[in-house]
C-alpha cells in the first residue's frame, strides 16, 4: 500500500486536494485521528478489494491526537509501507480572506481572532512542514492548477527520484515569496528599466536578456548562484528533500529577475532536473 498524508494549514485547500486524489483513484479518508492509523492499516490489509493507494487528511482538527502523528507515521515505516506528506499552505492574507468569505471559524480557536489562530497553527505544524515531501502554496492556484501540481509531484514520486525545482522571479516591492528556500537579490545590477527601448519589455525577450547579461558582474553573479546551488542541492537530496524553491528578485520583477530565472531554469533543465519556472509579477 502507498499512503499519502494530506495536511497543512486550515483553509489552505486540503479539501480540494482530497477531491483531486479521489479523481486520481485514491481511497481518501478525511480527518482521521492519527491514533487510528494502525487500526485502519489492519482493516485495509484484511480487505479483499485490493486497495493500494490511500490518502489520509490529517490536521489539527484531530486535537490532541494530532501530536501523536509522528509516532504513527514511524509505525508505517516499520511495517514497510511507503508514504509521502503533502503539506498545503497559503499566505496569511489569503487565508483570512477565505475564512471571511466562507464565514467559517478557525478550528483551533473558534471564538478568537483568525490571525491569532493562524499564528498558533503555524507553530504547531512547523515540524510537520519540515518533514513534508512536497509543500504546495495554494494562494494563487486554481483548482486545475492545483490538480496539475499534485499530479506532477505524484509522477516524480513514482519515477526516478530527483530534486524538483521551482525557480521564481519576483519584485521586492510586492513582497518576498513566503515559500522560497533560497532568495537571491539582483537589484544591484544595471536596470533595463532606464533604457527607453527596453523599459516596457521583460526578461522573456532576448534583447533584455542580452542587456542584463552583457555586464561582467551579471555573469559573475550567475556563476556564483549556480555554484552555490550545485553545492547545496545534493545535500538537500540526501536529507530526503524532493522540492526546492529558488527565488530571484529585482525591484519590479520584470527585467533582471526574469532574465536570471529563465537562464537558471535552462541551466538545470540541461542537467535533467525537473524544473518549473514561474514569473510571479508577469503571471
TrEMBL record:
Binding site for ATP: 8-15
Membrane spanning stretches: none
Record domain RapZ-like N-terminal: where: 1-154
RapZ C-terminal domain segment(s): 164-282
Top-level lineage group: Bacteria
This protein's record includes keyword Nucleotide-binding: yes
Annotated GTP binding sites: 59-62
Pfam families reported in the protein's UniProt record: PapZ_C, RapZ-like_N
Keywords, comma-separated and alphabetical: ATP-binding, GTP-binding, Nucleotide-binding
Keyword GTP-binding set for record: yes
Protein name according to UniProt: RNase adapter RapZ
Species the sequence originates in: Fusibacter paucivorans
Gene: rapZ
